[in-house]
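Action item from last week, closing it out:
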Amino acid sequence: MSVIKVLSNTRKIISQNNGIIGSYLKLLRHDDLKWGTLVGEDKFGNKYYENKYYFIGRSRWVSFPQSVGFDYDASQIPPEWYRWMHYITDEPPSTNPLPQRKWMADYTENLTGTPQEYVPYTTTKPKIEAWVPPSKQ
């Protein structure tokens, strides 16, 4: 690759990531710097990019909003964008949205491991009870 091409791509990366400081912060959060075209944004604030310059499998990516900080994971991507991210379809939901059926619930992320996680409770007595050592009186 020529030096001019490398410098051109470096300039694109720095300008798309809001300068040198923005690029440093993006590198700190995502461990990767890329440049590409904005394909769309979902209702959670995630931005989806594509650049066919990169290999397939790395040419589509998501940029999570600053509000989630370092607590981002794949369950924060809604199903319609999941289809596009994993190359199931080539048309992004921003141009070809999936129909919303009346029986479909709104998408929510997986809250396991957070204070809002669902914890079922039981009303039956356990078969095994914990041993409590006798106390000295």
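Closing note: The CA atoms of residues 27 and 33 lie 6 Å apart.
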